[in-house]
Fold this protein.
Amino acid sequence: MKIFFPKEPDNELRTPIVPLVVQKFRSLEFDILVEEGIGETVSLNDDAYLKAGAKIIKNRVEAFSTADIVCRLNVPNIEETQHLKHNSIHISFLDPFNQKELIDAFAKQSVTAISMEMVPRVTRAQKMDALSSQASLAGYSAVIEAAEKLNKVFPMMMTPAGTISPAKVFVVGVGVAGLQAIATAKRLGARVEAFDTRPTVEEQVLSLGAKFVKIDIGQLEETEQGYAKELNAEQLELQRQGMIKVCGYSDVIITTAQVFGKKAPLIITQDMIDAMQPGSVIIDMAVSTGGNVEGSVAGKTVISNGVIIIGNENLPASVATHASQVYANNLYNMIEEFWDKENKIMNIDINDEILSGCVISHSGESIDPLSK
Ligand code: NAD
């Protein structure tokens, strides 16, 4: 059984496979093929992969056509699907709500496509949950980037030259990324407040030593998976009114509010930005799904009325070594979970509670992610 890991696009610093995980696959007797230079962005040379037991591939197209499983990180280029072997398996992030053509291309090729973002939130799947593994590192990186851009220190300092008060950090959206952002900002000594539309997270916020901002926006629900449901226009307005005072005195705002499969809600409007002190920093972690912050631009830093708005789309890449390590483990755990040792096949039972959530093309049929 051959697994091929092609090199990621030039703008990606992370890699989907690291030598330690090659060894784990080798112990299950997989043949591991990696494209030449696969680890160079995380300072891992081909030799390190060779020593771990991988074969280095120069001809990418040929490897696609012989591999039983292809694993990668980013959404693949649609043209490359034509080289995949019939009945092979492809595992990566696939952005399935926006990539109908790509899903159809997998189906046309009779490829079983597994979408890492669709892995369900069940206990058994936690070890393969790449959205969480990357979001956690992104939450950490967001705080580090904010601390670097802010021209103030985070902790309180009592010095002979006077007392410096701690930076005030406001985290909007307390999922996986938000929780890690709160924990990181607290460790750096900031005073942290947080808000989420799911009231159940209040306890988690308090347990990290932060304050929960209470805003009454009426009845709210979450999906079976624990994702927030979308607010209506009236509720969003109530939320903004409730937040404007906190925004006004915050040195840093980190927004992580997303609604699974939908455009992110616009939460921080221009009047809220204008209420902030010049030099304050906003990190819009939802920038790639539409943005929580008015005027934020994907991949850019914008200054708005003196406030620095950062739209870094790939925060996990700031800590690419660890992001690669955990992503590679997510892939390994996914394959190992369904690996039938005796028959040496990956057991694709689309009625399984995990695979029924994340397989989006199988046996020549594409599966609408909205039907999940
Ligand atoms: P996410 O990335 O979809 O969204 C981030 C946060 O934004 C969520 O907490 C959401 O409630 C919040 N949000 C949405 N709209 C908002 C708004 N208008 N204002 C403020 N906040 C808003 O979320 P996530 O990180 O994927 O986590 C969602 C939940 O799922 C969390 O409770 C998390 O702990 C849980 N989770 C469970 C598992 C598991 O059990 N295997 C795995 C991962 C996450």
